[in-house]
Each structure stands twice: as C-alpha cells, then as structure tokens.
Amino acid sequence: MKSTNQSSLKLWSKLALAGVIVAGSAAFVPHPQAHAASATASTTAASLSAQKGSAYIKTIYSLAKQGKIPGLNAIAGKTPISAVHYKWGEPDTGAGKGNHYEGYNFGMGKGAFAFGVNASGIIYDLRNFGESVDQSVGIKSLTFTSVIQTLGMPKEVRFNGTDKIYVYHPAAAYELKFVGPSTVAKGKVAHIDHINVYAAKAAK
C-alpha cells in the first residue's frame, strides 16, 4: 500500500510540474536551488494561444538559437540531466549511464519530453513531443507545410525509418529538427511529431 501511495504521489507531482512547465513559467538551470514559479490562468491562456501556426514556429526557431525548446529553459550542451532529475525525479524511460536518452511522459494532455545525455551527464539533445489530447495547439498542430511557409525550405532533409526530418541551423552550435512521418495516407496532412534542438559537440 505504501509503494502505491508513493507512486501516486510521484505521478501527481510530475503532472503538477508539467502544468507549470507547459505554461512556460519553469526553468531548468544547473543549480540545485532553482525552483519553479506558479503560472497564472491568464499566462496559461496566453501561452496556449501562442502555440499555433507561424508565430509558434518563429518562437521555436528563436529559442533554438539559444539551445532551448518551448516548455523549459534547459540548454542543449550545457544543462546537466541532474537538474531535470531534481525537478521531475527519475525518468519514465531510459535511465542509465553513458550516452543515453531519458524520457518523461506526463499524460493527461500535459505533454512529453526527452533528453539525450552524454557520458558526462550533460544534455545534448532536447525533444518536445507536445501533447496528443488537443492537437489543435502545440507541436502536433504544426505541419511540414507550415514549417516551410515560415522558415523556408531546410538546407537538409533526412530520413530515419518512417520519419522525415527537416533540419535547420539557427546557430552554429545547434541543429533544429522538425520530425514527422515520411508518408501519410492519401488526403491526410503530415503533422510534426516532435522537435529537437541538438548540440552536436556535446553528443561526443
């Protein structure tokens, strides 16, 4: 019974933090004394209204110049994974040593994040999967077409399995990737599944 209560407490703590982070009011910094500020209802509403279309894509690109993604202030190539553990506890998937990935899925429309971590414990890849409940806002509301209309054609297009990846270079140190399906059914539109901000030098 005790373990069940602890698991429930951990889940609700993560959900509460996710709500704050999606609202854009939390920051991961490489310092154990950092704390999250509470988001107001008006801030949440403003944040959701800004998570659409061209304006949102421009925000993503602007943050990527700094090595960041929407939803948190971790910096690719600089922030240690220990700062994430301090805020969210152990990951849902991928905890380990060496070069590895860790994932947090908050469920209930709160979104999901993943982190590529090098052997020194520094995050080199930030991933935001958005949330799957309301796909009219956030990452999954975007399409490859809307990305091209806003940022132009990428200089590089990669394919990995069933994924198509548009790669932009907002800054010398970072790659911004929009990842989605390489093919869709006739009459369907290819939506973005997730975005990455990747610091290649830190991945080694």
TrEMBL record:
Domain of life the protein comes from: Bacteria
InterPro entries membership: DUF4309
Keywords of this entry: Signal
Signal peptide boundaries: 1-18
Database matches in Pfam families: DUF4309
The protein's name in its UniProt record: DUF4309 domain-containing protein
Organism: Paenibacillus sacheonensis
Taxonomic lineage: Bacteria, Bacillati, Bacillota, Bacilli, Bacillales
